[in-house]
Design goal:
The chain has 376 residues and is an alpha+beta fold. The protein has two domains: 8-22 and 176-181 and 195-328; 26-169, Beta Polymerase, domain 2 (2-Layer Sandwich). The chain contains 14 helices and twelve strands. The strands form three sheets. Strands 1, 2, 3, 4, 5, 6 and 7 form a seven-stranded mixed sheet that branches. A three-stranded antiparallel sheet has the order 11-10-12. A two-stranded antiparallel ribbon has the order 8-9. α1 crosses α8, α1 (7-22) packs across α14 (325-344) and α8 crosses α10 (244-261). It is globular, with a radius of gyration of 24 Å. The chain starts with 6 loop residues before the first helix and ends in a 9-residue tail after the last strand. Residues 351-356 and 363-376 have low confidence and may be disordered.
Length: 376
């Protein structure tokens, strides 16, 4: 059961439920894993090229760091996979590695039909469910097991990448918060903690910011800010807040400080490879940076309004505008179901001093009677 003894806890609970409804569901996650294992087995049995090499196949990106967001109007999620070969990259051309992966996937009737060639990866489209982007690469050196040389078809040479190292960095940022105010509230009232998935405020904050990005750029996504930029900025600006609301507030405040008061544009560098600028496109096409600033400014002002706590009507208007009507209403319905379940089990109370809902039996709390036929 959720406790509503505190308005901040209540808002964080609502934000948490909205983020949860955005993520990859368990059924689809398990289906992804099945396909991932099948692809791994298919590559492992390749006699012409891959079989002699030592290599790893592992997920990275939003699935790995648990910040997936369901696209608006679509059912397809992204799954990023790295094919990490452990050999000397100087002995192979970028074209060779890419073409060998393409050849092997083409030898499978189902994969051949799903295959789409991208600049650095090969995509397998599972229509209506998800798509897998398989990134081939060779370990860059012996002393760093995470750094990869990956082929860039547009440039025609190897580029340095570190998808696994990035995941490790982000999860270190996530774990700056040992817990959350939601779990603290449950522990304070000795309630079961399984009401919440074990996700930290930074992960939830990133999900919500990405969802807002999708809403904001829905009509024209020409200069839409990329997920890797938003995720990296959020991770770099995070200060270990235990609240989802405060996590987003801190991130949008710091973005505004940089965009409004710093003379130069924000540069978002790969935290595990400073030579890689995720925002280099903002230099050559400044419209991307202009769009990012406008999007971040709008989120900032809406968050300031949300902070003023004008009441449930104003709060619902702001949250619907930021994250969509459906997302807000599903979260609200989920909250209501939990309350009704607690009421029916005589586990719901109301604080005599504040009038807020909480657990029955807590200090200064009176039990709320369960609803019965005709109120009897």
């Amino acid at each position: 059961m959720i406790t509503f003894q505190d308005e901040n806890v209540q808002l964080d609970d609502l934000l948490d439920r909205m983020a949860e409804s955005l993520q990859l569901d368990q059924t689809r996650y398990e289906l992804m894993i099945q396909h991932y294992e099948a692809i791994k087995k298919w590559i492992e049995t390749d006699e012409l090229f891959f079989k002699p090499f030592k290599y790893e196949l592992y997920p990275h990106g939003s699935v790995k760091i648990r910040t997936t967001v369901k696209p608006i109007g679509k059912d397809e999620f992204d799954l990023d996979i790295a094919l990490h070969l452990k050999t000397n990259w100087n002995q192979h051309t970028p074209e060779k590695i890419y073409s060998e992966l393409k050849r092997r996937l083409s030898e499978h009737a189902a994969y051949k039909e799903k295959m789409e060639l991208k600049n650095r990866c090969i995509r397998l489209n599972y229509a209506g469910d998800f798509h897998m982007d398989i990134l081939p690469g060779i370990q860059e050196n012996e002393w760093d097991e995470d750094k990869l040389c990956v082929p860039d078809r547009a440039l025609g040479y190897w580029v340095s990448s570190n998808p696994r190292g990035y995941s490790k960095w982000f999860m270190n940022q996530v774990n700056m918060a040992k817990t959350s105010i939601l779990l603290k509230a449950l522990r304070a009232e000795k309630l079961p903690e399984n009401d919440y998935e074990n996700k930290k405020p930074l992960q939830r904050g990133v999900q919500l910011i990405k969802r807002y990005r999708d809403i904001y750029f829905q009509k024209d996504d020409t200069y839409k800010t990329s997920s890797i930029v938003l995720t990296t900025i959020a991770g770099q600006f995070y200060n270990g807040e235990e609240s989802i609301f405060l996590t987003v507030e801190n991130i949008v405040n710091r973005i505004r400080q940089h965009t409004m008061y710093m003379p130069a544009r924000i540069k978002v560098l790969n935290p595990v490879n400073s030579a890689e600028d995720f925002t280099d496109k903002w230099e050559t096409e400044p419209e991307y940076y202009t769009a990012f600033k406008a999007f971040a400014e709008h989120l900032y002002f809406e968050w300031q309004e949300l902070k003023k706590k004008h009441g449930i009507i104003s709060e619902s208007r702001i949250l619907k505008g930021l994250f969509g009507d459906d997302l807000y209403l599903r979260a609200q319905e989920s909250q209501a179901n939990i309350i009704e379940k607690a009421r029916s089990a005589n586990e719901l109370g109301i604080n005599r001093n504040t009038g807020m809902l909480g657990a029955a039996g807590a200090v200064s709390t009176s039990a709320v009677k369960s609803n019965t036929f005709f109120g009897d």
